[in-house]
Amino acid sequence: MSSPRACETSGYSVQRQGDFATASVTQNVRDCADCGGTGLLRATVNENGRTYDVVEPCPRARMVARAAAFSSAHLPAVHAQASFDTFRPSNVEQARAVQLAREFSAKYPQTRGFVLSGPVGTGKTHLLCATLKHLALELGARVAYVEISLLYAQIRRGFQDGKSGGEIIQPLSQVDVLAIDELGKGRGSAFELDTLDELIARRYNSGRVTLFATNYSLKSPEDRAQRGYLGTDALVDASKESKLLADRVGDRIYSRLCEMCEFVEFPGNTADQRRTKTVSGNPNGPPRR
Ligand SMILES: Nc1ncnc2c1ncn2[C@@H]1O[C@H](COP(=O)(O)OP(=O)(O)O)[C@@H](O)[C@H]1O
Ligand SMILES: [Mg+2]
User: In whole angstroms, what is the distance from residue 49 CA to residue 19 CA?
Assistant: First the structure.
């Protein structure tokens, strides 16, 4: 028998729809015995010694609103079923990452974000999506997911339609929790760095929590002290070959990340689960080159 879908136990069903993950509520509001299908409940509140009759959303109608908000958060379809319980750590760093994600969800909104760094296929996007899913469906937070290079491409396309970068960034800067994936990816052009800087600055200035994943190392470059602050032009040159996130995104953004987030870096030998799946699904192992 297959195990229940991640969220069905709490009344949601999460599925793939096109490129994205979407959620629905397993029981229809129309059949709700509590509200009689209206989606509203009467309640009495006491305030300053006076009693008021109020109308508030029925819990099931609230779930429908949360499912709709989750469905517009643009989590990748492939991670629709990602959860904390299905993440299997293979080293202490991965164990710390899933613990951090769980703690983040438990303490939210009184908490800092996190940055996950590591090789491909090690579950970074899995953990971002598990966290966003929990926040959106269980806590009702407004969340969004964005892969940074796709955002750059979207903004470039927007220019052709007369839209400014700020217009496209606006909704991402206003959600309660934003996950930025593949941080450091891209050409490292001044346009990309300015866009990233604006997005992170807006979130930083408004005190909103942001989560990140990156394939680049979180270590500080050893020669950082001698090299000093990198301006945009020098940064574009330095960032092109570097494996360090600090070089890819520059001092200002890296410094903000240090303040906004906990860092976890998986070791370089952490297994790529995509390859492991291929090997276990194929008795002859991966194709030889
Ligand atoms: N530690 C893990 N436990 C369970 N599944 C994992 C783990 N690491 C990766 N996966 C699975 O492997 C696939 C690739 O993971 P993903 O999160 O996309 O990797 P990354 O973002 O680090 O490149 C996904 O299907 C994900 O659910
Ligand atoms: Mg990923």
Answer: 52
Q: Which atom of ligand 1 is nearest to the CA of 98?
A: 1
Nearest ligand to the C-alpha atom of residue 87? 1
Cα(180)–Cα(261) distance, integer angstroms: 13
Provide φ and ψ at 147, rounded to 5°. Answer: -95, 125
pLDDT value, residue 33: 83
What pLDDT sits at residue 237? 57
Which residue CA neighbors atom 5 of ligand 1 most closely? 87
pLDDT at 174: 97
Q: Is 87 in the pocket of ligand 1 (CB under 6 A)?
A: yes
Cα 281 to middle of ligand 1, angstroms: 16
The segments of the chain whose pLDDT lies below 50 read 1-9, 223, 225-226, 283-289
> Could you tell me if the CB of 270 is within 6 A of ligand 1?
no
Query: CA distances (Å), 178 to each of 106, 124, 129, 166, 192, in order?
Result: 17, 15, 11, 16, 18
Report the separation in Å between the CA atom of 126 and the middle of ligand 1, taken as the mean of its atom positions. Answer: 5
Whole-angstrom distance, CA of residue 92 vs CA of residue 99: 10
pTM over 0.90: no
Ligand number with the minimum distance to the CA of 182: 2
Q: Which domains does the chain have, with CATH numbers?
A: 8-61 (no CATH), 73-276 (3.40.50.300)
* CA-CA-CA-CA torsion sign (218, 222, 225, 230): negative
Whether the Cβ atoms of residue 177 and residue 108 lie closer than 8 Å to each other: yes
User: Contact, 205 vs 173, CB < 8 A?
Assistant: no
- The alpha carbon of residue 196 and the mean position of all alpha carbons in its chain are separated, in whole angstroms, by 15
